[in-house]
Specification:
- This protein has 23 helices and 6 strands.
- The chain has 541 residues and is mainly alpha-helical.
- 61% of the residues lie in helices and 4% in strands.
- The longest helix has 29 residues.
- The chain has a 6-stranded mixed β-sheet with strand order 2-1-4-3-5-6.
- Helix 19 packs antiparallel against helix 20.
Length: 541
């Protein structure tokens, strides 16, 4: 329902924030009155921001005297009053005018709910509502352009004044936000000034991602592609000069790579938080056990790949309680729990958990199913991490034979067991076909859209170790740098997998220096026996 606003009080009389440059609109007002104004104007909630500019944003404020220049026609935020509707902003929204109003409102309402914020006291500075659009239209009519420097200065002052930017990105598969150079400028300004920056998305985006994951689609590969494809330098602008100026500022400041990594990190945080919350919410609503196990498995694997093993384990335990003794969903979740335990270094617990999962597959005669074969591969990885290569090789061979029988030996499913088995053979002195195996695995990952993933980086690391052992140090360095760059783009540099690559890179570089100085470098086979590189697990599957 539309709330009665009443006439705005005189500037400074009852509402001292009227006309303040940091005055923002409350989330409560956006979710009630603004949507009511749109309905009254005959506009649907799905209308885009630029579609409501004339009838609603300027329509509501057309008869209001602006408290900033005392002329007729004010900013929308100055046409409303009372503290439930407007006040000094505690958030700035970074978005595009091509977003649907409903998506903006839903994202902000959800942000309040998730952070226990009062919507009536959560004020957001939104340019379309907080900049006087009447003056913008006058300037356009008079062909007066606001100088870039003036815009940048005013925006910077607001960022520093509010100190908390919310970057609204949607859809999750390909955020339109990242294609607009002014949005990238806003992120750049926030990063440069070290103010808090958060990514938010409409809740339906989290639901869409969770649904895709539970449905067995390729959403997880798509998620990694989103993180790896952040490239602010490719953004567009309606005014080419603005695009050039903004990109020059970014390049001279943190640089494209650093800003891309920052954006990927913020996106990663949102994906992790929202997927975990969405999974818990769906279990609470009585999610189908098989779909719930599939969703939980994928989300827990994603959390693990980010180094969030505690959150992954807690989510898996919730899933196990929810599926009870249902054998196949339980086996699915136990397998991932075993992988998480292995990542934490508890090889004994991991082996017991995975053996329980394998027992359930044997009991239900599903060992040769995809889930059963993955369990065999993970059992091999745990034994390999514990130093029992003989047992590990047996599990990997069973896994690969099963895939061959099932006709899945040409898919990415065989990458992890094949790479690990090859590593064991190398340690035993069998180098036959190793390089070709690694390169074919990389081609397979690339062909299936996983060329920039933690798994691909780990295969590159294994190939680098082989090249290093055969005297091709420069090629090995290039591969390790490429693997590290993948982790940098995915914002996973703080994970053990990335640190392992960095240690190997550092050791190789030090070895090259030693050789140049006439000293014999430390043998890499000896170093490879140290905890530098873990067995490859089927993380994203």
């Amino acid at each position: 329902a539309v709330e009665p606003q009443g006439p705005p009080p005189p500037c400074g009389a009852m509402d001292p924030t009227l006309g303040h440059p940091l005055r923002g609109v409350s989330v409560h007002h956006l979710s009630t009155t603004l949507l009511g104004h749109m309905k009254a104007a005959g506009l649907p909630r799905t209308a885009l921001v630029y579609e409501i500019e004339e009838k609603v944003i300027r329509g509501v404020s057309a008869s209001v005297v602006c408290p900033r220049d005392e002329r007729l026609g004010s900013a929308y935020v100055d046409a409303i009053a009372w503290e439930d509707n407007a006040g000094i902003a505690n958030f700035m929204l970074s978005y595009t005018w091509g977003y649907a109003v409903q998506d903006i409102v839903d994202a902000l309402v959800y942000h309040c709910k998730a952070n226990n914020l009062d919507p009536k006291r959560t004020y957001v500075w939104i340019c379309c509502l907080c900049i006087n659009q009447h003056r913008v239209q006058e300037a356009r009519a008079n062909k007066v352009d606001v100088p870039f420097e003036e815009f940048a200065r005013h925006f910077g002052e607001r960022v520093l004044g509010i100190k908390h930017v919310l970057a609204l990105m949607a859809p999750w598969k390909q955020p339109a936000y990242l294609t607009r150079v002014w949005c990238d400028f806003e992120i750049f300004t926030a990063v440069q000034n070290k103010v808090k920056l958060q990514v938010i998305m409409p809740p339906r985006e989290a639901a869409s991602l969770a649904e895709d994951l539970a449905g067995g689609g390729e959403a997880m590969d798509g998620l990694w592609r989103v993180l790896a494809s952040v490239k602010v330098q490719d953004a567009k602008a309606s005014v080419e000069q603005d695009r050039v100026r903004i990109l020059q500022l970014i390049e001279k400041g943190p640089g494209f790579e650093q800003l891309n990594n920052e954006v990927a990190r913020f996106l990663q945080q949102w994906f992790a938080q929202m997927l975990e919350l969405q999974t818990r919410t769906l279990w609470g609503k009585g999610l189908d056990e098989e779909k719930g196990a599939e969703l939980t498995r994928k989300v827990a694997n994603f959390l693990r790949s980010l180094g969030q093993t505690r959150q992954a384990k807690d989510l898996l335990l919730l899933g196990l309680r929810s599926v009870g003794q249902n054998p196949l969903p339980r086996a699915l979740l136990l397998r991932v729990l075993g992988v998480v335990e292995e990542a934490g270094g508890d090889f004994g617990a991991a082996q017991r958990t995975l053996e329980e999962a394998l027992h359930l597959h044997e009991k239900t005669q599903t060992v040769n199913s995809l889930a059963g074969l993955r369990t065999l591969g993970n059992l091999g990885a745990v034994h390999m991490a514990a130093g029992d290569n003989q047992a590990a090789a047996g599990y990997f061979q069973r896994c690969l034979h099963g895939h061959k029988a099932a006709g899945t030996d040409g898919t990415t499913e065989v990458v992890a067991p094949l790479v690990n088995l090859t590593r064991i053979k190398l340690q035993q002195g069998d180098h036959r076909g190793a390089e070709q195996t690694y390169r074919e695995c990389l081609k397979s990952l690339q062909a299936h859209g996983a060329g920039e993933s933690p798994e691909a980086a780990q295969v590159q690391q294994a190939l680098a170790l082989l090249l290093q052992q055969t005297g091709r140090g420069e090629e090995a360095l290039d591969l390790l740098r490429s693997a590290l760059q993948t982790h940098r783009r995915l914002a996973t540099l703080e994970t053990e997998a990335a640190r392992s690559i960095q240690r190997q890179l550092d050791a190789l570089q030090q070895g090259n220096v030693a050789t140049a100085q006439g000293r014999r470098p430390r043998p890499m086979m000896q170093m490879a026996q140290e905890p530098m590189m873990r067995p490859l697990s089927q993380m994203a599957q």
